[in-house]
Amino acid sequence: MNAIKITTPLTAETVATLHAGNVTHISGTLYTARDAAHRRLAETIAEGKPLPLPLENQIIYYVGPAPAKEGHVIGPAGPTTSGRVDPYTLPLLELGVKGFIGKGYRSDAVKSALVEHQAVYMAAVGGAAALLARHIIATEVIAYADLGTEAIRRLTVVDFPVIVVNDCFGGDAYQTGKTQYQAK
Fold it and tell me: What is the pLDDT of residues 39-63, one digit of tens each?
């Protein structure tokens, strides 16, 4: 299966080419944020203050990477469970985020919002943190350094492997896969 290669920032045209189940390789910039960072972003948005990162057309990766060993850019960097940040997702979509990477299911509200805002949710393979880290060639903490591994980072990635789970058309690879399995 050939991977669809995309670069960031995402455009509406690129998002429209991605369908649930597509294997995709991302090159460019990803921003990291986990639970604590999402809470702070939500507070900042609610207060009407400027955010510490650009959101329009960006991808947020739900990851708290381990510390880097000597000679490495980053430590293992596997996805965290996406459902934990569902309560914070809608405001980010409203501010122009076009993609999210994590693992696991999204709520019905988030899946509907992805369609409404023409964005995608992609899964990185859980348990492959060290392998995923090989696709990260640069990293920089850009906000909330006090959160340690949950600080917001800017990652530069090359051919970062993901699978489109929820597309901007309402497609759901988890549901499709389950249906196909049950049919066998």
Answer: 999 999 999 999 999 999 999 999 9
Those residues with Cβ within 8 angstroms of residue 123's Cβ, 6 or more apart along the chain or in another chain: 79, 101, 102, 103, 104, 162, 163, 165, 173
What is the token pair recorded at 182?
């049950």
The DSSP symbol for 65 reads P
| Residue 175: inside a domain | no
Looking up tokens 């980072």 gives 153
Looking at residue 92, which CATH number applies to its domain?
Answer: 3.20.130.10
Residue bearing tokens 């409203």: 94
H/E stretch holding 89: helix 86-94
Backbone torsion region of residue 11, taken as left when φ is above 0, otherwise alpha when ψ lies between -120 and 50, otherwise beta: beta
